[in-house]
Design goal:
Blueprint (H helix, E strand, L loop, with lengths): L1 E2 L8 E6 L6 E6 L2 E7 L6 E8 L8 E3 L2 E7 L8 E2 L5 E7 L3 H32 L6
Parallel strand pairs: 1-5
Antiparallel strand pairs: 2-3, 3-4, 4-5, 6-7, 7-9, 8-9
């Protein structure tokens, strides 16, 4: 049983156990980053938080063994700190080692780059399919 709504055209790319939790996972798709948790009583899987790549304000970063995710502040995410401007939220995810954090950071950056490429191709094809006005 799952309570995770799949987005249009969304496909799985990668996952990792969420540090410090046996029942949670970070999931990378071609559209977003999710933290999913298994609910003990029913065995359901629910989304704890998620963020679209379009909402990222900058590339994820790794400081020692901590993955940092920067996203627009919509007031809905379970992210902890704001920067000084109040427009950005920061999520810090501490892994047991730096290599795990770097691996997830690379996977997120690859998924974001692929998503950006898909959007550019779609925009270009829409422009080409638009009827041209006679000159």
């Amino acid at each position: 049983n799952s309570h995770i709504k799949k987005l249009e055209g969304e496909s799985f790319r990668s996952r990792s156990a969420f540090p410090g939790s046996r029942k949670a996972h970070l999931v990378i798709t071609n559209r977003r980053l999710l933290c999913i948790k298994e609910v003990e009583i029913l065995g359901h899987v629910t989304t704890d938080w998620d963020c679209l790549y379009e909402d990222f304000t900058r590339h994820p970063a790794v400081v020692e063994n901590t993955l940092q995710i920067f996203v627009k502040d919509h007031g809905l995410l379970k992210f902890h700190k704001k920067d000084g401007s109040g427009q950005e939220m920061l999520r810090k995810i501490q892994f047991s080692d730096a290599e795990s954090a770097k691996r997830m950071c690379r996977a997120i950056n690859e998924a974001r780059a692929t998503r950006q490429q898909q959007k550019l191709v779609k925009q270009a094809s829409l422009k080409l399919s638009m009827p041209q006005a006679p000159s």
